[in-house]
Amino acid sequence: MTELKALRERQPELAEAIDMHLELLELQRRIQGRVTLPSLDVTADIVARHQAEAKPLLRFEDIPLDMTNLRLMVRQTADVLRRFGALDDADLRVVEAMGRDMKLVEVAGDWYRRAAGHHAVASLGVASSTHASEPHAALDQVLTLAMRPFLSRCAEVVQPRAELAGWTHPYCAMCGGEPDLAVIQPSAERHLICGRCGLRWKFEPLTCPYCRNSDRSQITSFATTDGQYRVYACDVCHRYLKAYDGRRASRPVMPVVDSVATLPLDAAAIQRGYS
Ligand SMILES: [Zn+2]
Ligand SMILES: [Zn+2]
User: Fold this and answer.
1) Tell me: the pLDDT tens digits for 201-222?
2) What is the separation of C-alpha 58 from the centre of its chain, rounded to a whole number of angstroms?
3) Which of 70, 84, 194, 240 lies at a CB distance of 3.0 to 4.6 Å from 274, suitable for a disulfide?
4) Helix, strand, or coil here: 201?
5) Which residues keep their CB under 5 angstroms from ion ligand 1?
6) What are residue 157's phi and psi, to 5 degrees?
7) How far, in Å, is the centroid of ligand 2 from the Cα of 223?
8) Ligand 2: distance of its center to the CA of 202 in Å?
9) Residue 235 and residue 76: Cα distance in Å, rounded?
10) 64-97 as b/e, with b when 16 or more CB fall inside 10 Å?
């Protein structure tokens, strides 16, 4: 929070985005404090089996989900996004209706498994066909934020486990989510950071996590002038990933702060034709 406020002083043009994230963070922290730490089994055998099956560790049923708090998160997250112009009226109505619906838990389950299940199915070479609901971009955006307090608590349990080193896939070992940020360690290793639960795991430094292209001539990488951040853009799938360069940093990576601080980098990457 303090870092975000300091960033607002340094880069006033980011003030609106920062204010929105401050409100979202406040909301997440309040709910996260009410979520009990789950007990999850993470042994070397379990990780090895999931690694071999390319299947993330956490089933939807294992998430310590409380429907009252989830509804509250959905409602208040939508409200914050609406106030900052990140949701239009039509989207707001879809999200509000879902927040009241008895099927919210099913929708959340579909959202969760869409990422987690997709990889396992894809790796078996079987076409995916069992999705109960069609994805809705705004609803997905709200669910990603609304589920964070619950998924973050699970990540707290899994993160310290050394057994995680056995996971080498480009999506989250715990929830199957895609990385939306990375951090370069002082050892030059690159760790990906899950966009859903915040878990970090080691991945090859120059392979695209979205399409697994590992041809270095097809990866465009550039750094900010202060050297604090780096972008890896893939010339095969045209997606990009931002990284915080921990080799020359005075503080550890802070995913929310670093995501907002690099909004100008997003603009630069998009301008170059990446998404
Ligand atoms: Zn995750
Ligand atoms: Zn790619």
Assistant:
1) 999 999 999 999 999 999 999 9
2) 15
3) 240
4) strand
5) 172, 174-175, 177, 194, 196-197, 199
6) -75, -40
7) 18
8) 17
9) 38
10) bbbeebbbbbbebbbbbbbeeeebeeebbeebbe
